[in-house]
Amino acid sequence: MTSSFSNKEELLNVMDAWYVSELLQPPRLATEKRKCIKILPGSLEPWADPKYARREDERAVWWFLCLGALSLRTATRKLLQKFREEMYEERVSSADGKIPLALIVLDERGRPDLEQIFISTFPWAYSLVLHDRLHDLKNFQKVEQTLKQNILQHLRPDPSHGSPTPLTVQEVLHLTDKLTRSICLPKEDAHQVKPFALRIPQRRNEPPEVDMLNSFFLEDLSTVRKALERENIGLALARYLYGLDPAERRDVVKDRTVLREILAPGRTPKSRWPGRNRPSLSLMQQCAVNHAARELGKSGMASVNGPPGTGKTTMLRDLVAKVVLDRAVVLAAFDHPEAAFRSPKRVPIRERIATIYRVDPALLGFEMVVASSNNQAVENISRQLPLCQEIADDFDPPIRYFASIADRLTVKQEDGMTWGLAAAVLGNKDNRRDFVERFWWEQERGMKHYLQAVGSPKDGADLPAVAVIEQAPKDQNEALTRWHTARANFRNSLERVTNLLHTLELAREALEQKEANRMDVHQTAEAAKKARLIQQQQEEKFAEAERLWKEAAERTAAAADDRKALLALRPNFFARLFSTNAYRHWQQRAEEALAAVSIAREEEKRYKEQRDRAQKEVEQARTQCERAEKERENALRRMQEIEEKIDRGRQLAGDCFADPDFWQQSEKDLERSTPWLGPDIQRARDELFKRAFELHRAFVDAAAKPLHANLGTMMAVLRTKSLHPDLTTLLRHLWASFFLVVPVVSTTFASFGRLFSGLGKEEIGWLFIDEAGQATPQSAVGALWRCRRAVVVGDPMQIEPVVTTPLPLIEALFKQFGVDPGQWAAPWISVQTLADRGSWLGTSLMGEGEPIWVGCPLRVHRRCDEPMFSISNQIAYNGLMVFATPPERPCRTGQVLGETRWIDVKGENIDGKWSPPEGERSAELLLIAVERRLQDGLQPCVPNDIFFITPFRQVAFKLRDHLRAALADCQKRHQIPLFSSEEELNEWFERQIGTIHTFQGKEAEAVILVLGAPGKQSLGARYWAGKSPNLLNVAVTRAKQRLYVIGDFSAWKSIPYFSTLSKSLGGPSH
User: Fold this and answer.
1) Where is the DNA2/NAM7 helicase-like C-terminal domain (predicted)?
2) Which of 59, 103, 468, 1056 has the most CB atoms lying inside 10 A of its own CB?
């Protein structure tokens, strides 16, 4: 991107601050499922110990040699001593675990892999911070190379083979000691640093991936900083970093003009996601879809504000449908699908030579990735899209797109679960490995076997089950016949939707023109009337002029006749000669007659000129009258055409016809409606969605051979850490082939860089960021750099990003680079915050100080009953949300536990945040629910539709113990197991009980909010919970139908935002 960036230097400092802050984010090496084998003086090397030798079921064994390990708990305690933060333990989960100073990958015999030496950032940065050397943190990359070289110097090569020899215990201890001194660890920490090893069995004979050692974002931040320095970033990332001038903002809530423009049928995608029962989007959902579709035509970023229960996923599904359709339009241009694959190239990968085809450039840019820092959020979307329950069930025949393969990708792997292969859960290596095994290699349902059967059929060979189930074409000719049929059906459906939307767009334009044209009709009618009057006046004037002229002509003729007669009486020659009296008298009369003729002729001439002028004026008046009449007729014709366009649009749109009356509805009715898109057009859009997937399916069948080659290589890429250089240049084409078959992929930001390693600037078509309010601003930088278009969805009024670094230290780090942490650092700033800054379309929410500008807001809330809805709407959204929760939903919890209320539990004399009486009341409610389920014979005995949540970690820990004891007593009393296993019990406690922070994105029929912190000495904790509306907003909106607040009413009623809660619940009950 070329542009004259005015504040590039500031942003380079921001990138440096982000990078340095990530050095102190301590991802921990996954040791909980692996035995840490200590390496002590005099002990046997683990890789030489027979008890750790490779077993029969293992293809290979590798070792992670950890050169010392820093205690995260100890390090955190020291950082907090230096940078004090009172409520740190509530903001961050308990810091624990080991952080290696460095890690070396060893083979089965203990020989180091010289390409896999990793230096941990946290211990090095931690040491600098303790020594007040914050300014040196930016030098990590240089220091890393030096530390690696120091290690390499001590790894002895085998003289005979030139490869390293197995490490000894003495060498490991020496390396650990030298590294500890190199990074200047404090003595008390250095004494605790002991090396250990992790045994890593592998199913393939290849080195394992090293993860969870350093921040996942360091490499991307470094790469993007260099790109920023060269001004080589795409529009999406530029908009994210540079933002927009506030003067460019348009408030879509207050400005109906911009809203109408965006919702125009001509801006509406031709396809949509046909959900179960085919519901339409709400007004602002459709606005967000149209805005993203138009704004991101070629590149860019759009921001969407999604309060709880407003249908973020529903909105994103329509964008998925739009992108699938866009690619289908390109697919339909190929007479033969194989023509979309060209220039095959042979490239070594793993243990074979792969053939890779380049994809036609027109098919690049349709890749869709859903990303978030919240693993559950992204998996929810990608696991939901393929499910039958997410698609209309009244298609005849039903929509099916490789459903038998998609069934194998579900958690339960049951047949009939899915409608199609719409999405894949990728990201971390376990997800990638699981996907590859199920999608590609699965013996009965793998895509590999399907494409082989279609692309290279063997005479007489039995078809694999997947080919039979999917009714694969028997040969290439049948595949091409199906292709041409699918293409014709698609084009017909596309033409129909195009025509329908065009009809609606003409109607919309006609409505806009109607008032102006009505005025035009009135004005032309008045003009014609005036012209007729002028014509009449001119004709009367002409008639008068003609009468006067004729009279003058008659007088001229009379005068001439008189003179002629007089001339006939002229005296004779002698009278003239002698000038007699008679002659002189006649001569006088003759002169008078001549003068009279002259005067008459002059008068006639004057009247004739007047008559001629009047005649011209009449002709002009007639012409003007004819013109005015024609303009009046044209205006009437245009009005008739306008009325006809409006009538056609009205017939097509029905109640959705967006005439002036439509926009005059009450706000509640308007927000719940969708302008223009009536049942007929929605059905047509649904049908086009189906035809688009049918076209994709037929394309895959007809291009099975090149797709089999590319997908086979892509599966190896998903399992391989390092790539051949030739393969890197073709990686985009492999991904495009993959996304052609599987339209949507999900991943966390943490796995994004590794998953899409090798892809560069704007080489991913679409990025959908979910729960962006929870993500640190730097976590999305690499993803935004790689994408061409980004739709950022989140809510700054819910849970903020979690960072493990003490806040005073974050402030110090950013100020070291001259960067305002309040503008660029988490937890104050999130991905959503920066995306909102770069959005010209949105609205303002009243924050604690200045108004908060958010992206295009979704407003219709369909999750919570009252009073939860109104509490949230009042404390966080200034009444922006519109209530649309379905009425009269059955609520079993309400039948058992009663109505929503505040259960007052006094605790003014209790020290700490945990209140045992509150625990007792919580246990009572749980046991009442369990007892009723036991009476009714319901399974499971312990309800899954009640959450126990709290603002405080200490309360959550104690509450789990308290409820566990209560359930144990209940089980003992009834002599009935409440859970089938200890694992199921632990899962229930992990799933149903916790802090508010851990429950964003979840919902339950009922929520029991255990407040804790009732005592006087806990006033600070209470004010911490109420410092912003975010925490309470998330808490109350987890509850769909019932909310039970347990806490000291008098202690909490005056706390900001909780005061609204206390008033809404009508006071305490007991």
Assistant:
1) 858-1048
2) 103
The label of the residue with tokens 């009809």 reads 503
Same domain, 432 and 409: yes
Residue 572's CATH number: 1.10.287.620
How many domains does the chain contain in total?
4
Of the candidates 431, 323, 308, which has an alpha carbon nearest to the alpha carbon of residue 369?
323
User: Cα(558)–Cα(290) distance, rounded to whole angstroms?
Assistant: 87
pLDDT at 27 over 70: no
With bands split at pLDDT 50, 70 and 90, how would you rate the model's confidence at 17? very high
The verdict on residue 839 lying in a domain is: no
Determine the structural domain holding residue 733 and report its residue range: 235-246+300-472+678-799
Q: What mean pLDDT, rounded, does the chain reach?
A: 91
432 and 570 assigned to the same domain? no
Examine the domain organization and report whether 918 and 948 are in the same domain.
yes
Residues 538, 618: Cα–Cα separation, whole Å: 5
Across 80-234, where does the E strand assignment appear?
98-100, 102-106, 112-119, 196-202
CA 938 to chain centre: 40
* 123/35 same-domain check: yes
- Residues 693, 599, single domain; the answer is no
Under a CB-based contact definition with an 8 Å cutoff, are residues 42 and 193 in contact?
Answer: no
Q: Check which CATH number belongs to the domain holding 947 and give it.
A: 3.40.50.300
pLDDT tens digit sequence for 422-436: 999 998 888 998 999
Ordered DSSP codes for 66-96 = ES-EEEHHHHHHHHHHHS--TTHHHHSPPP-
**Rounded Cα gap, residues 681 and 1049, in angstroms:** 53
Q: Write down how long the chain is.
A: 1070
What pLDDT, in 10s, does the model give residues 924-946?
999 999 999 999 888 888 999 99
The per-residue pLDDT for 887 is 85
Q: Which helix (H) or strand (E) holds 775?
A: none
- Tokens, residue 305: 């504000």
- pLDDT score recorded for residue 746: 96
Do 317 and 401 sit in the same domain of this protein? yes
DSSP secondary-structure letter at 762? T
The three-state secondary structure class of 985 is helix
Dmax of the chain from CA atoms? 177
Q: Does residue 813 belong to any structural domain of this protein?
A: no
Q: Where are the alpha helices (DSSP H) in 437-475?
A: 447-455, 465-469
Asked if the structure places residue 253 within a domain, the reply is no
The answer, as to whether pTM is greater than 0.90, is yes
Residue 260: alpha-carbon gap to chain centroid: 22
- Asked if 797 and 772 touch (Cβ cutoff 8 Å), the reply is no
The SS3 assignment for 852 reads strand
Residue 191 CB neighbour total at 10 angstroms: 10
Burial of 576 (0-12, 13-18, 19+ CB in 10 A): middle
Does residue 932 belong to any structural domain of this protein? Answer: yes
Q: What residues are paired with 882 via a beta bridge?
A: 860
636 shares its domain with 705 = no
- Alpha carbon dihedral 447, 449, 450, 452, in 10-degree steps, equals 120
H/E segment holding residue 227: helix 218-229
pLDDT of 1070 > 80? The answer is: no
The C-alpha atoms of residue 46 and residue 756 are separated, in whole angstroms, by: 35
**DSSP characters for 681-740?**
HHHHHHHHHHHHHHHHHHHHHHTHHHHHHHHHHHHHHHH-SS--HHHHHHHHHHHHHHHH
pLDDT tens string 566-610: 888 888 887 778 788 888 888 888 888 889 889 988 988 998 899
pLDDT value at residue 173 = 92
pLDDT class for 793, splitting at 50, 70, 90? very high
Please report which confidence band the pLDDT of residue 370 belongs to, taking 50, 70 and 90 as the band edges.
Answer: very high
Q: What are phi and psi of 1043, to 5 degrees?
A: -130, 125
Task: Decide: 346 and 382 in contact? Cβ < 8 Å.
Answer: no
Q: Which residues contact 878 (CB under 8 A, 6 or more apart)?
A: 845, 846
